[in-house]
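Re: the 423-residue chain
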Amino acid sequence: MKRPIAISDSANFYVSAERIFDPTLKNVPVIVLSNNDGCAVARSDEAKALGIKMGEPLHLIRDKIEAHGVRVFSSNYTLYGDISRRVVEVYEDFTPNVEIYSIDECFLDFTGFPDRTAHARAMRAAVLRRIGVPVRVGIAPTKTLAKCANDIAKRNPIFAGVLDMMDDALADWLLPMVPVGDLWGVGRQTEKKLHGVGIRTAAELRDMPLRQARSLGTVVLERTVLELQGEPCLSFDEVEPQRKGMAVTRSAGKPMTDFDTLFQAITAHATRAAEKLRQHGLVAGTLTVFFHTNRHRMDRPQYAGSRSTRMTPMSSDTFDLVEAARRCAQAAWPKDQSRAFGFTKAGVLLDDLLRLEDRPLTLFDAQNPKSQSLMTALDQVNQRFGKKTMVLASEGMKRSWKLRSDHKSPRYTTRLSDLPVVR
């Protein structure tokens, strides 16, 4: 028996989340911008119809925005993350096994449901009624085929948002109409190689000899071929795999020209990384700090700095990570002080992650109970009274490096002062 795997994704998720609390956004063009209000990363169907492309810089579409009344929003990740969590809670009412793939996509185990299409439609209706976000569902015996079914359901109204492609005959009819470049896991370079040997549709790739697929696109393409044939190669992760690495990076609202300002940003990133480690019960063995100037401004002095250090002992303590980050930042800071560098991005990377109870100990590495109590208190204060209620002094107060977000909507679901008011 083939195991039915479904994938449900939210339609234009960031835009849909904004529309939940603002009815005036319905049926009008809306875009959501990337960090620092740089470019469009989410577009409503109306905005797509105007020719606004994914990733198009804001300054290149201002005329179009003004001419057509496009509503513009800065990314509101607090809102989007909370809406995503609520959507997953609805999914969990319809299946015991949910694998979160991204903020707007989840794989679902549909084993045991006699009428999968009716079950998926009931789930879609529940998400729309309880959360207000439209979703589409694709069902198939493998993740690749499920993604393909989801894309087909997304683009063809005849399926009413749900496509069950467990039937091989239905897959045989639909796959010849799917361009090979639209498949999950087929990038642009691989698409060019496939076109070079006459493979242009998903059906043609499915029928490709496995040895040829491996020679053309390594084992990754071979697995895609097998998945298109209905043989699962990508497991359904009912238990979240342990993270191997972690990154906290941000662009700056304006260039950072002195070390103190740069280190304020790095402190904030290291603090957030430490919080994430503790949330997952992990400790880090290696920390890397990086920062660089705007690579696209060739008229300005260019510099990129990066340094790594071992965490001994491995730690998730905010003070430990910030102190290690300071050493790295000082070592990477440019020695040429005669040039005014403006750093536009910085970040902290953590590697060699282990569960707290699995970390290697030496004779002198006994854990400090005061450190654990302090971190617990710090997390509880920030959870109860809001993020950044209590921070390290080295993060600063003015935070001039913060991201530019001139069009940000309220945090409707996570901040009392932002609750919508009905008069």
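The radius of gyration is 24 Å.
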